[in-house]
Design goal:
Strand order of the largest sheet: 6-5-4-7-8-11-10
Oligomer: single chain
Distance between the termini: 32 Å
Number of helices: 10
Length: 331
């Protein structure tokens, strides 16, 4: 990579050298990450090309069929109260008993940001069309379909598509370029949740999303936050790096630049839910050369306190947290 894939600047500095895949162990190679001195994104160079990148997903988590849901009474109660809260956000909770609405409200005081984000991303949109780009095995797609969206998903990984179809979801093996050529101005919303960092050319991908949306349509993006406290603490062992699958990593400035370059208007960062513990636990395992998806993982108390404090900060400010959530509109 002779230039930044977001702003085309050739000015850069080495961020991490010789990082290896300690998340899914798909590659024995080591990789270098560079920071663009202009837009401040980070990008992998050298990196896998279009024909070799599939090897980096040989043991990816989307290939796993979800286990049957065996939720106990506490988890079922949690889900029900979250549902009541979402009904209330849409003005549809009047038929629920007052005690349940009160319980949902009290619980939302603690879990407000996580529930609020879910209510915003997945409002009731009966009949409106939503496309989940890079849907994987369909976790987010399933939620969107459950609240009324006419939800569809695309993914280039045949194994992940097979898993999603086995769950009864409307998913097809396809890519953005093919969809944009076939179905312009079709969708009311597009989700790219932890997907944009996987694209070789993020701006080209966003332009294709722009063409797929109807005027006034909205795109939702979630991606690891390059300037997060977890990255500052763990460095090359931060879970968000995930080389060599994550080709470009963003801060808010570089993500706004990419969205505007693709033709989107009014990019807005949202306050996020409680994600820090996941990143800190897995990053700590990576730093200790443990498999972050196997065995019992725990954090020292001081790290737990740091993760809790970060989640508190993320509930108050859109500029905090391990992830960036951003939406923008097609004009």
């Amino acid at each position: 990579m002779r230039a930044c894939p977001i702003c085309c600047s050739s000015e850069r500095s080495l961020l991490h050298q010789g990082v290896v895949d300690r998340v899914f162990f798909s590659s024995a190679d080591s990789w270098n990450l560079w920071t663009c001195r202009n837009c401040e994104c980070a990008y992998l160079s050298p990196r896998p090309n279009q024909s070799s990148i599939s090897r980096a997903y040989s043991s990816y988590y989307t290939h796993l069929v979800s286990a049957p849901d065996t939720a106990g009474p506490l988890k079922l109660a949690y889900r029900y109260l979250r549902h009541v809260y979402e009904l209330g956000r849409r003005g549809e909770a009047k038929s629920e008993p007052v005690a349940r609405r009160l319980a949902a409200y009290c619980m939302s005081l603690v879990l407000h940001r996580r529930w609020e984000l879910r209510a915003r991303i997945y409002p009731k949109r009966t009949g409106e069309r939503l496309l989940d780009v890079g849907c994987g095995s369909g976790d987010y797609l399933e939620i969107a379909a459950s609240v009324g969206w006419k939800a569809e998903g695309i993914d280039p990984d045949p194994r992940a598509v097979g898993v999603a179809k086995a769950r009864g979801l409307e998913v097809r093996l396809s890519d953005l370029a093919s969809e944009a050529q076939r179905s312009p101005s079709t969708y009311d919303a597009i989700m790219m949740l932890h997907v944009i960092e996987h694209f070789h050319d993020p701006i080209a991908a966003l332009k294709e999303c722009h063409s797929l949306l109807r005027p006034g349509g909205r795109i939702w993006i979630a991606t690891p936050r390059l300037e997060s406290p977890g990255h500052k603490h763990f460095g090359e062992n931060w879970r968000g790096l995930e080389v060599p699958r994550h080709l470009v990593l963003f801060n808010e400035r570089s993500l706004c630049h990419a969205l505007k370059a693709a033709g989107f208007h009014r990019p807005v960062a949202e306050r996020v839910g409680t994600h820090a513990m996941f990143y800190w636990v897995q990053s700590d395992a990576i730093s200790k050369r443990k498999n972050p998806y196997l065995g019992s993982l725990s954090l020292p108390t001081r790290m737990k306190l740091s993760a809790w404090y970060e989640d508190l900060s993320a509930s108050l400010s859109a500029q905090a947290g391990e992830q960036i959530y951003m939406h923008a509109e097609r004009g």
